[in-house]
């Protein structure tokens, strides 16, 4: 009897998810009016938004990173703010500060750009550690304290930080422990030739199409709850744990050659985020249950910044990507 009730539950859940995720296609279509090609980036933005996480985007300048989050905030009826990180930025420039009001001889609070649904932290590695930690604390706690007052941040709340991989001059690389706060680290590649041809045409035409807000914040909040309800079988949980544990003790998973290449494995935050991201990916694909392909689709974005590599790996030009590929190819798929 239990078996049939589970089957019924999955059926009902599938219907519910299909209904709740209907907006994904509309939202993607709206963003595609302006963003050409970058399907991977748009999907990752949605995973971050649905999974209540934050995204670190790495790519050379000019790949529409800023444009993407700006477009997303227009398509969702959300507020958007952008902080261009520079070496002289102060924490108060991000979170806000107390201002002395001469007339009333009292302090009033001026809120910073962090008080928005979509916050773009442009070139996060250009700001000093104090500013980075102020931003990361707000991301983690979802609240900000100015003076004696603590403010809850707006929901949904998505921080998209960008960093440029080519310039290291005058930058403050994010410490490993802080990079871990980002749910996803997505690397953006150059567009395909035919996409770039379209990009040229669009720009020569002078201006983009108007992006309309097609999704409400309430729909996003409902979808965040629904995405967590996506069914994940115990076999999939075990699969996720095997992948994570293989980053810590590769020799137990027939991968002894990785032992000297990994300096630190993924933390429990890695397993939690891999599970959440797999559920969100299934949600975007309008399914009420997680399949192994969902895990494999998001595993690079979740783990690439959570695996520390040794000097030996660097000397052999082996990246965390290569390590993830090896692990995913060896771990048995349920």
Automatic annotation (TrEMBL):
It comes from the Bacteria. The keyword Nucleotide-binding applies. This is ATPase AAA. Residues 261-327 form the ChlI/MoxR AAA lid domain. Keywords: ATP-binding, Nucleotide-binding. Residues 54-184 form the ATPase AAA-3 domain. Belongs to the MoxR family. It holds the Pfam family AAA_lid_2. It comes from Patiriisocius marinistellae. GO terms for molecular function: ATP binding; ATP hydrolysis activity.
């Amino acid at each position: 009897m239990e078996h049939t009730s589970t089957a019924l539950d999955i059926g009902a859940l599938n219907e519910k998810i299909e209904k709740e995720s209907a907006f994904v296609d509309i939202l993607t279509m709206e963003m595609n009016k302006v963003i050409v090609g970058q399907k991977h980036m748009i999907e990752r933005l949605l995973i971050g938004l649905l999974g209540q996480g934050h995204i670190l985007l790495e790519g050379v300048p000019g790949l529409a990173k800023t444009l993407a989050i700006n477009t997303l905030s227009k398509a969702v009826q959300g507020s958007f703010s952008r902080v261009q990180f520079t070496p002289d930025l102060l924490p108060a420039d991000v979170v806000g500060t107390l201002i002395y009001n001469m007339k009333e001889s009292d302090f009033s609070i001026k809120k910073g750009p962090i008080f928005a649904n979509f916050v773009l932290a442009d070139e996060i590695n250009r700001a000093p550690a104090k500013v980075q930690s102020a931003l990361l604390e707000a991301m983690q706690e979802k609240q900000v304290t100015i003076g004696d007052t603590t403010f809850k941040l707006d929901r949904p709340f998505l921080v998209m930080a960008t960093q440029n991989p080519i310039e290291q001059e005058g930058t403050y690389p994010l410490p490993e422990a802080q990079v871990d706060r980002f749910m996803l680290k997505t690397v953006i590649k150059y567009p395909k030739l035919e996409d770039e041809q379209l990009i040229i045409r669009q720009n020569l035409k002078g201006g983009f199409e108007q992006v309309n807000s097609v999704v409400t914040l309430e729909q996003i909040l409902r979808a965040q709850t629904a995405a967590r309800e996506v069914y994940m079988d115990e076999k999939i949980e075990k699969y996720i744990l095997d992948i994570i544990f293989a980053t810590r003790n590769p020799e137990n998973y027939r991968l002894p050659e990785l032992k000297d290449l990994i300096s630190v494995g993924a933390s429990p935050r890695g397993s939690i985020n891999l599970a959440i991201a797999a559920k969100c990916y299934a949600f975007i694909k309008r399914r009420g249950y997680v399949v192994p392909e969902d895990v494999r689709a998001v595993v690079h974005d979740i783990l690439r910044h959570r695996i520390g590599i040794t000097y030996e790996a660097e000397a052999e030009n082996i990246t965390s990507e290569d390590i993830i590929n090896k692990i995913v190819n060896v771990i048995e798929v349920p």
